[in-house]
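Study this:
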Amino acid sequence: MSFNLIQISIILFTVGITSTSFATVFIDPKKIPNFLHGISRYGKVVEKREYLNKHFKLPKRYFRHFYIYTAPTATMLLILVIYAYSTCYQLPEVLLLILDFALGSCRQASASPEATTLALFLVAVHTWKRLYESCFINVFSKAKMSILIYIIAFMHYTALLLSIVGESYGFVRGTQGTFNSNAHTWYYITCTIIFLIADYEQFKTNKILANLRKNKEGKVISESYKIPKGRLFEYVSSPLQLTEIVVYLMFAAILWEATTIYFITGWVVINQICNGIIQHEWYKKTFANYPENRKIIFPCLL
């Protein structure tokens, strides 16, 4: 029997992390086992107590490792995809075995070469941008995260890349794929524009957060937390989560004929909403003068 391990894993992650996140928000923290706070929270919203042994914590700045891994991998996979579709290149058996293992040997080809190529290109753009932000923009405090979050993040990005190609023509045994320059051109252009706007706003949001810890000369003078203002912060507490949701919705929209990408997008949407709720509650508890008109994550809605 063929199992899609990515879909099964995503369901388990979603149920586990979501239930844990909401438990730490709506249940008395003293009634929640210490280690659960470390699984569902990181950075400023972690309860100030030893939820895990210090050997199971990692600095939050290690977030950049996700992009050091994903950006070059996405780029190399994009080059392989373009080459394969342009030359009818016979894929290495090891790659097909990996895809069979991750998505099941009975996986079906559904995503077009154009959709696959565009999605991988945007993943590369997004992760290279995130790598730049984490290396040159973000100002990380001494905050920690659970090693479990660190591992899950690597699994997430691996699953994202495999899901994009795993259900694409030419990457399923017995199928071939060739480019069609007239395939859904305006649809793809629209999705790309929305993606780029979201990615740009995410970049500006990270600059706003970083500048809260810098002086006018750009020198880091503090690691404390302040109320962010400007751009999307005028409407919601979690612009980073909002823009990440839009980015993944565009991945799903581009790969709308595939299946596994919906599981990954659903996981991201639910996880980001949970993070947004936790952050919003933290801001309200921490700052007495926090703007009451700010929504959690979606302007005018939530």
About this structure: The mean pLDDT is 87. The longest strand covers residues 57-59. The chain is about 60% helix and 0% strand.
